[in-house]
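Exercise: predict the structure of this protein bound to iron/sulfur cluster.
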Amino acid sequence: MTIINATVPLGLIKNIDDYSRIINEILKHNVSFNILKFSTTPEGINLLLDVPEEKIKTITESLTKNNILVNKKGRVVIDEDICIDCGACISLCPTDALNFKDDLSVNFSEEKCIGCLLCIDSCPRFAIQESR
Ligand code: SF4
Ligand code: SF4
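Solution:
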């Protein structure tokens, strides 16, 4: 599975239910997928989705044709100078990419990170950013 970010742009939104345009478009491809996060941003209505890797090209083309913005997600970076090792991000990470070292400082494993970005909002210090 692969994480993508699909956004209904602000200019196309008439009401909050317009996020269903993303879901209905993906359902046309007869695939299983997960919605990891729903959010509204200055860019529009945003869904973070976990979709099958082998269908990523088809799904992206189909969404783009319908004016949905699609980005494949990157990884995150943690600013160790700001992090206070509180551990708030660890419980949200679905892949154990974030965990405690023996000395109770936070360890980030880039190989395990799938870029779901669930950890970003959990950080009280804003120490986690999406890598570009
Ligand atoms: S982006 Fe997702 S997988 Fe990566 S560290 Fe954050 S919660 Fe874990
Ligand atoms: S939530 Fe932020 S401050 Fe706390 S351990 Fe994670 S990165 Fe560090």
